[in-house]
Amino acid sequence: MLTGKLRLTAIATLASLVIGGASVATTAASARDGDVSADTAVPGVAPSGSDASAVYLDGAGQVMDMDAVDESDAPRHAAALGCTPYSGRDNPHRSRTGVVASGHGWWDKGNCSNDRAKVFNCLYEWYTDNTWRQQACSDTKTLKPGGGSVQRTVARRDCRDTRRTSRRNHVDVDVIGEIDTGEKPMNQAEVDCRVY
Fold first, then answer.
1. What does the angle CA 53 – CA 161 – CA 43 come to, to the nearest 5 degrees?
2. Each residue's pLDDT tens digit, 78-113
3. How far apart are the two ends of the chain, measured CA to CA in Å?
4. How far is residue 118 from each of residues 17, 129, 179, 185, measured CA to CA in Å?
5. What is the pLDDT of residues 166-188, one digit of tens each?
6. What's the 3-state SS for the chain?
7. Which residue, 144, 105, 107, 99, is CA-closest to 121?
8. Across residues 124-153, what is the average pLDDT?
9. CB 156 within 8 A of CB 100
10. Which residue from 171, 165, 175 is spatially nearest to 187, judged by alpha carbons?
11. Angle, nearest 10°, between helix axes 23-33 and 4-19?
């Protein structure tokens, strides 16, 4: 008779041979160790301390480098050479129009001189495999500083149910005609709105 751990290893090995891939063995080993695979991950509330190892995924499930800087645009990211706009954003929230997750983006001039910027924002939902998965992005808009109900962008996504889930709203601001720093600040909140 096989012990539990040995039986799990034998089943994973056999499944791997039958299906012809090593991913089943990896998934079985991960499940045994308490990890969650990307295939079985579900939305949820992010535990404290998960941020140090969290990964961002775009709408196609590809890993995003949230700290990447386009080398052709490097001068834009040098704080000593440019201005720093204020990147406005609200907490992700349920829209008053129903079971919809929403987030807004806007900007203020900070120490910038120009009065127009291209702004967009994206919403992310936390999954139990410690990924932040992109759920919706706004269109990029050219906005005056200040925010309000007109001078802002909106990203929104219908939810399947009202279970509590961690969400993030990231905003990106690019001041027109001026070198500016490349911050992509975000706000995080738990929202009773789950996308999947």
1. 15
2. 445 689 999 999 999 998 878 999 999 999 999 999
3. 41
4. 52, 33, 13, 15
5. 999 999 999 999 999 877 789 99
6. CCCHHHHHHHHHHHHHHHHCCCHHHHHHHHHHHCCCCCCCCCECCCCCCHHHCCEEECCCCCEECCCCCCHHHHHHHCHHHCECCEEEECCCEECCCCCEEEEEEEEECCCCCCCCEEEEEEEEEEECCCEEEEEEECCCEEECCCCCCCCCEEEEEECCEEEEEEEEEEEEEEECCCCECCCCCEEEEEEEEECC
7. 105
8. 95
9. yes
10. 171
11. 160
Banded pLDDT at 164 (limits 50, 70, 90) = very high
Asked if residues 193 and 99 have their Cβ atoms less than 8 Å apart, the reply is yes
Whole-number Å distance between alpha carbons of 12 and 25: 5
Tokens standing for residue 29: 């080993």
Handedness of CA 54, 59, 60, 64 (dihedral sign): negative
Q: Contact, 155 vs 187, CB < 8 A? A: no
Dist. CA 132–CA 170, nearest whole Å: 11
Tokens of 134: 């992109």
> Considering Cα of 133, then 67, then 151, then 60, what sign does the dihedral take?
negative
pTM of the model: 0.74
Residue 137 is encoded by which pair of tokens?
Answer: 């992005």
